[in-house]
Amino acid sequence: MREKLHTIIFEADTKAGKLFDVILLWAILISIVVVMLESVVSISEAYNSEIKIIEWSFTFLFTLEYIARIIAVKKPLKYIFSFYGIIDLLSILPTFLGLFISGTHSLSVIRSIRLLRIFRILKLARYVSAAQTLNQALIASKNKIIVFLFAVMSLVIVLGTLMYLIETPEAGFTSIPRSIYWTIVTLTTVGYGDIAPQTVLGQTLASIIMIIGYAIIAVPTGIVGAEYAKSNTSTISTQACPNCSREGHDDDSEFCKFCGGKL
Amino acid sequence: MREKLHTIIFEADTKAGKLFDVILLWAILISIVVVMLESVVSISEAYNSEIKIIEWSFTFLFTLEYIARIIAVKKPLKYIFSFYGIIDLLSILPTFLGLFISGTHSLSVIRSIRLLRIFRILKLARYVSAAQTLNQALIASKNKIIVFLFAVMSLVIVLGTLMYLIETPEAGFTSIPRSIYWTIVTLTTVGYGDIAPQTVLGQTLASIIMIIGYAIIAVPTGIVGAEYAKSNTSTISTQACPNCSREGHDDDSEFCKFCGGKL
Amino acid sequence: MREKLHTIIFEADTKAGKLFDVILLWAILISIVVVMLESVVSISEAYNSEIKIIEWSFTFLFTLEYIARIIAVKKPLKYIFSFYGIIDLLSILPTFLGLFISGTHSLSVIRSIRLLRIFRILKLARYVSAAQTLNQALIASKNKIIVFLFAVMSLVIVLGTLMYLIETPEAGFTSIPRSIYWTIVTLTTVGYGDIAPQTVLGQTLASIIMIIGYAIIAVPTGIVGAEYAKSNTSTISTQACPNCSREGHDDDSEFCKFCGGKL
Amino acid sequence: MREKLHTIIFEADTKAGKLFDVILLWAILISIVVVMLESVVSISEAYNSEIKIIEWSFTFLFTLEYIARIIAVKKPLKYIFSFYGIIDLLSILPTFLGLFISGTHSLSVIRSIRLLRIFRILKLARYVSAAQTLNQALIASKNKIIVFLFAVMSLVIVLGTLMYLIETPEAGFTSIPRSIYWTIVTLTTVGYGDIAPQTVLGQTLASIIMIIGYAIIAVPTGIVGAEYAKSNTSTISTQACPNCSREGHDDDSEFCKFCGGKL
């Protein structure tokens, strides 16, 4: 009984299991859209009761599903404290909390993270490997990204303070934190325009910051790109020829490309 | 007779065929410019009748061309339901529909897609191969791009809701969909500035979103770049095995990697 | 006599030649700054006569230099119609034209292109090779960039027209050309915010355009990057081992890395 | 005695040394936050004396630390004029200068550069190598970046002047320097929107500038990426020739490429 439940809820290989996952994804999608629409004043005023009913129905269903998941696994605690277990709980909690504290309700959109379960439906080797390669590239370049972020942080604090000293409060540079916010907006090339330098010196420094931002953007791209290219290649070649023991063969190789021996 | 028509309309190797294609491209370009100008109120009021006449002349010509294409091919249905067949039909339909429904007329700019026919005029090996390499790189990285888009979607929904809870409606964050719209505007570094965070907490989260956007932009670039570099290399290996006639060997291969035969 | 002049003006290997080039670069830089400052109303009103005198002095010097260049070369016509010859003429012409037509004077900033002459001073193998590698990568990817620009043009026209039909003139989408302008501003992630979608449907389409822009930016980067990496590598390896005739050696190789034979 | 001090202050291998560095980093972080908060008018008015006390305590501590550093090293002058020595001095100077000159106080945020000392705590081979690889890639591509910046500068001056001639002062293009500022804002895809073209011709040229910016951004990315990938690969080949002990061989090398000896 429990095993059958497990097969349906946690796996997507059987017909019933796949159907369960597809229905679940649609339920998540619809419930997110409902939570979003509720935040639009005009809609929530016109269809107040309908939205309430739909939202509680979904929360009821997701609570049932959460209980079923706990029943289905052999070690419930391990599931409860796993990444998806916590997300599953967090996606039903806000609705219940909304009974006592107002405003927390919108937090139910955290269930959008559950959409990542789509990977199970698409449980095709290619998708999993695609996600893995991506993940691998990001992990491999993690250290370099930390180094990069620290350097950017120092740069942003120093440049932000300089702009605070150069520019006037009238232009929006009222404090150092605000100037740092502006520097990040400029360096990342977002450029809202709510704060913009007015003096000649400020505009000159702003131009330099933009050019720096333009050059800096190349760094993370270069890092991830190179790491990605490397992880991409390394997943292909692992086997060595038993004859000449040379490596570097493609995944679909059946014979050694250097000596012609059977792999 | 039909074969001659086919040579002129569908091919660009003969002098007549190339001339036909060049005239067609200019006709498309001019007709797009006319449709664009018609949408400018001051111009459409001053030259109303002239624009009408030009537009109907082009529609008449393109209709003639469409009929000629149907006559020229042996299997008309296959052409009608092909990519270019549908585009050809869609580029004349809006003008006729404009007789009954107003406003649909502007849709004729869909004929701009026909400009991609320029490839036929430039039917030089290099251009075709350039387009193919590009296409190949995009198809190969399609799965990874889907994975990437799903992760970005979840991120954007969660961050957008957080901003909705942190920021006030006065700053423009009036509903979750609108906050999600703002998050996309910020994450992609577009940054209109029509909606901008006002609170300290909101500006801090915005800064984090920008830095994330800055890091995330590296991912698609890395993916396409690596895929592109790979497809670029694979075009080098053109030799087929004389034994099993399979292709896809590396440049430094001395033996077929599928059957072990000497290359 | 003429040869000596040629050595000084056109070469930078001798001491006099280098001095000439350094003085010339400073003269260009100062004259550009003067033209720029003249365009600032407050400055040009206060120092009107001083700026006039400086500007005419520089023009006189550059005219002398232009005549000296014509005298120094054996085939004056070849120099006059060369890239730098035309730029040299264009940088003195606007000042003279300014006597008859007002407003053309600012065009003298075209002399900023002459700053590229800095390459001659830095005539170090590494700089020249750096520029060449860059140039080579851009030329090699030219075809792919044309293909890319044509596809972007079609996309921008179709999306711009859709936005024109969806959005209201009040939001700034008053005509198709203006909507296309907005689409380019959004797709390139510039995002001024002078025109911004107001309707829900418009903001949804705008979000999609931004995500597309985010994905598209990967394409030129991938193209140039791959091409650059290729040209970077291909400049290294050209020689084949005379013993085993295998290629792929580094530039600094003295012995074949496969068989150990002298290269 | 001095050696013990040196171990604690300059090294992070011992327990005491690591503790010192962690405390120092937290002190730097807190003191930066205090300087930032002081610039916010509402906070500095409410907690004026508290902030003053905290700031002077930190300055006192950092001065002690600076003196300790001078005592700890054998060659004090070498430390004083080293990169970190100057930064250490600059991070305490502004507070003392603030006694005589107002406004210079905020400059103490320069101590944020000291945060880069985090590398010593994380003195793990991987972090150091990550920073080195990054640094190496940037140095190797320095020449190409200079060439790139010169070309961009010429482009920006010429395009900025063109926009000044095309657009009206009402749209914000009041002088050439200001137009150049706008061109940089647009070319780097920052796009504040404080200055935006109004005429049809101006918007057309702006569109072209954006597309150019879109294409240009590929260049630094390509440069750093390729350089990074290269430096990344060269770190793989660590074996030295047993014969001539020169390094830099490829992974697939079987013979030394400099002397031909067997590896």
UniProtKB/TrEMBL annotation, chains A, B, C, D:
- Give the UniProt keywords, A-Z: Ion channel, Ion transport, Membrane, Potassium, Potassium channel, Potassium transport, Transmembrane, Transmembrane helix, Transport, Voltage-gated channel
Which biological process, per GO, is one annotated for this protein? action potential
- Which InterPro entries does the UniProt entry name for this protein? Ion_trans_dom (IPR005821), VG_K_chnl (IPR028325), Volt_channel_dom_sf (IPR027359)
Location comes to:
Membrane
Any idea which GO molecular function terms this record carries?
voltage-gated potassium channel activity
Question: Which positions, given as ranges, span the membrane?
Answer: 23-41, 53-73, 79-101, 145-166, 205-226
Its membrane topology: Multi-pass membrane protein
Which protein is depicted?
Ion transporter
**What organism is listed for this UniProt entry?**
Vicingus serpentipes
